[in-house]
Design brief:
Blueprint (H helix, E strand, L loop, with lengths): L2 H15 L3 H17 L36 H15 L3 E3 L2 E3 L31 H4 L2 H8 L2 H13 L2 H17 L11 H17 L6 H4 L4 H16 L9 H16 L6 H18 L12 H20 L6 H17 L28 H12 L12 H10 L15 E2 L4 E5 L8 E6 L19 E5 L2 E4 L11 H8 L7 E3 L6 E4 L2 E4 L3 E3 L8 E6 L10 E9 L4 E9 L4 E7 L5 E5 L2 E5 L8 E5 L5 E6 L1 E2 L2 E2 L1 E5 L2 E4 L1 E8 L4 E9 L12 E2 L1
Parallel strand pairs: 16-26
Antiparallel strand pairs: 1-2, 3-4, 4-5, 5-6, 6-7, 8-15, 9-10, 11-12, 12-13, 13-14, 14-25, 15-24, 16-17, 17-18, 18-25, 19-24, 20-21, 22-23
Helix pairs in contact: 3-6, 6-7, 6-8, 8-10, 8-11, 10-11, 11-12, 11-13, 13-14, 13-15, 14-15, 15-16
Length: 677
């Protein structure tokens, strides 16, 4: 057996061990169902023989109200048209890769590896994790979400320029023709199918006044089959058990939206009821009472909130509104987002991120949260403590579609700084005239469900920003598939601003989306202290002898300093403490003092970092053997950044004090790169 085969077998054994008996039974049934469904595959050469659906009066009524376009701000309008013009030329960026082939996209090509998967292979026979067969699957799927066509449809809606509608129609027909039912890699994931359904609904809505829209959708047998095939798949193949995270939310949201926007099939009402129940149940299951998503991955919090809001609006428009508790939960998620962001409206960088979007109604921005807050404001209204956000096309059009705001009772009267159930604390400086000091402290559960698929081994880590600039930075994600060493590093303990003991992560890595053993963290002391936080975790209790870590963080707003106090009970073990500096931060390390500066950041500044004297400190930048000193701004992107590492062989408990003092001095004469003296 080859090494790769052995590794795959080991992964399957570990994955099986993470399942309950009920989930194992369900997965056995699911495999049998997939084998049976394989006979239902439609290949491209069989499309002509697919029986037409019964003729009936199919009309699309889920339209925007007249004049909704007038509410789109001019700034957003210009950005949309500029990006639509690029798309007409075939240029588009997907996950850090600039593509120039989007005028006539190859729906099966990965632009990173150059690999092209087999279009006619049955989806159930394809392993989308096998990069050798399908390439980088995230790159392939990103274009197949068809969100770029939704943006082109917005451009048509705003300008009525025929070229935009024609490009949308041509590429939709191409996709429907080249991706018949269960053929190819674009039918291997329910989350992708759900997102496409949401975009089908919005494309049809935005093109409603276009002369060719009925011929593209309701009078087009292939379109009708595709919309029905997508829903048939989701009705029969749902994510469950240890996989019932954001995937099941996307499946339910897409199914619900499609049933409401396209109630054209005999099964539509049954599917709608089932999807509504599933979405409401799983939104509750996936969300802490505080409103924070249980995956504890900031990017997925926004993604799930967006899925829920778009699906809820479709259901309301169709006359089948979701329950009050679900609207309250969605509002709590948005209020949580408003509480978490820094002064530049940037979210935490906690755990995995794949920059997932649901419906693209505006020119894409790297930071999606301002648009989501604008959407939340359109649906729920903003509270006095919310940060100001700019309105955009998404909030204007969705707000017009919703027909008014939902009045939600018992929203927080002041900006929350603690989410105790999620283990998140935000310490921030107050007062006008000075850049904000923002610090996120992590003292909660490792992740969600038995595999915690999108978690990182980051217990007791901190993120520290000055005026929205990363100073002590979370490293990000970089990759999901195809580069296991990099995937493992970006999820590891040493890649985060916390303490590593005995050369291993606090939680045991079981594969790219699985943890075999999860560290548990808990907060200590007052949960509502404004400027202090203390927590501990048990991730090293299994070592021999057992080891432990407790951390306290104190923000002193008067002296504009952050102090981090670590108690590391690790006698007999090697200890490493890591502080990862943001990519814009320069550093001059001398002994246990590091002078930091960021003169070319959006908000410039400087700081003195005083490090624990009982550790030996070294600086690392862009190293690959082993990997250390890296920062990822987004999936598919990485850049060298400086990491300071302190090491010691512990003979007794270590009491370590780290202090960051923001000096706000002139940093123009600091060195361009790391200097160690």
């Amino acid at each position: 057996m080859s090494g790769s085969s052995t590794a795959r077998l080991g992964w399957y054994v570990r994955r099986l061990g993470a399942m309950s008996a009920a989930e194992v039974a369900w997965r056995v049934r699911e495999q049998a169902l997939r084998r049976a469904w394989s006979r239902r595959q439609v290949r491209r050469d069989q499309l002509a023989s697919v029986r037409p659906l019964p003729r009936r009066d199919r009309r699309f009524t889920a339209v925007l109200p007249p004049g909704a376009d007038a509410a789109v701000p001019e700034r957003a309008r210009k950005a949309i048209i500029a990006d639509a013009a690029r798309l007409l030329q075939g240029e588009w960026e997907t996950l850090g890769v600039v593509r120039t082939d989007l005028a006539r996209p190859d729906w099966f090509l990965d632009p990173v590896t150059g690999r092209r998967s087999a279009p006619d292979e049955c989806a159930f026979a394809l392993n989308h994790r096998d990069e050798g067969r399908v390439g980088n699957i995230k790159q392939v799927w990103e274009v197949n979400r068809l969100q770029h066509l939704t943006l082109l449809a917005v451009a048509w809606y705003l300008t009525k320029e025929e070229a935009y509608a024609q490009r949308v129609a041509g590429q939709l027909r191409s996709w429907w023709l080249e991706n018949p039912f269960l053929s190819g890699v674009n039918w291997t994931s329910g989350i992708e199918i759900g997102i496409r359904l949401l975009n089908f609904a919005w494309i049809r809505r935005l093109l409603d006044d276009w002369a060719g829209v009925a011929g593209l959708f309701e009078h087009n047998d292939l379109a009708l089959h595709q919309i029905r095939w997508h829903q048939q798949f989701l009705a029969a193949h749902q994510s469950r058990g240890s996989s019932a995270n954001n995937h099941v939310i996307a499946e339910a949201a897409g199914q619900l939206a499609a049933c409401c926007a396209f109630p054209w099939f005999d099964e539509s009402e049954r599917w709608r009821r089932g999807a509504a129940r599933l979405l409401e149940r799983e939104l509750e299951h996936n969300t802490f009472p505080s409103g924070i998503n249980r995956e504890l991955a900031s990017d997925y919090h926004g993604f799930v909130a967006e899925l829920g809001m778009f699906a809820a609006v479709e259901a309301q428009l169709a006359g089948h509104p979701l329950g009050t508790a679900t609207w309250q939960r969605l509002c709590a998620m948005v209020d949580g987002m408003a509480a978490l962001v820094d002064e530049r409206l940037q979210p935490p960088r906690q755990a995995d991120s794949d920059e997932g979007r649901v419906v693209l109604l505006d020119a894409p921005e790297h930071n999606r949260w301002p648009a989501l807050l604008a959407l939340g404001e359109a649906l729920f209204g903003r509270l006095d403590w919310w940060p100001e956000v700019a309105h955009d096309a998404g909030s204007a059009l969705t707000g017009a579609l919703a027909g008014g705001r939902h009045e939600i009772a018992a929203r927080p009267a002041r900006r929350p700084s603690r989410f105790a159930d999620a283990g998140i604390a935000i310490l921030r400086s107050a007062g006008p005239g000075a850049p904000e000091i923002w610090c996120r402290c992590d003292g909660g559960p490792h992740g969600f469900l038995s595999i915690a698929a999108h978690a990182h081994a980051d217990a007791l880590s901190v993120e520290l920003r000055y005026g929205g600039v990363d100073i002590l930075a979370d490293p990000g994600t970089y990759c999901y598939h195809g580069e296991p060493a990099w995937r493992s590093y970006f999820r590891s303990t040493i890649a985060h601003n916390t303490v590593e003991i005995s050369g291993r992560s606090q939680s045991v890595d079981g594969g790219p989306f699985m943890w075999q053993r999860q560290a548990h963290a808990w907060e200590i002391g007052e949960a509502d202290a404004e400027y202090r936080w203390t927590a501990a975790h048990d991730g090293y209790a299994a070592l021999r002898p057992p080891a432990g870590h407790q951390r306290s963080v104190w923000l002193d707003p008067g002296s504009r300093a952050i102090e981090i106090a670590d108690v590391v009970n690790a006698a007999g073990h090697d200890v490493r403490v890591a502080f990862h500096l943001g990519p814009l931060v320069r550093v001059h390390l001398s002994g246990t003092e590091a002078k930091l500066s960021w003169p070319h950041a959006p908000v410039s500044g400087s700081a003195l970092l005083r490090l624990p004297a009982s550790l030996d400190w070294s600086a690392h930048r862009g190293e690959t053997d082993p990997i250390l000193g890296w920062y990822s701004a987004g999936l598919g992107r990485r850049e060298a950044a400086t990491t300071l590492v302190g090491t010691a062989r512990a003979r007794a408990s270590l009491h370590l004090i780290t202090r960051v003092e923001f000096t706000d001095g002139n940093a123009s004469h600091e060195p361009e790169s790391v200097v160690i003296s």
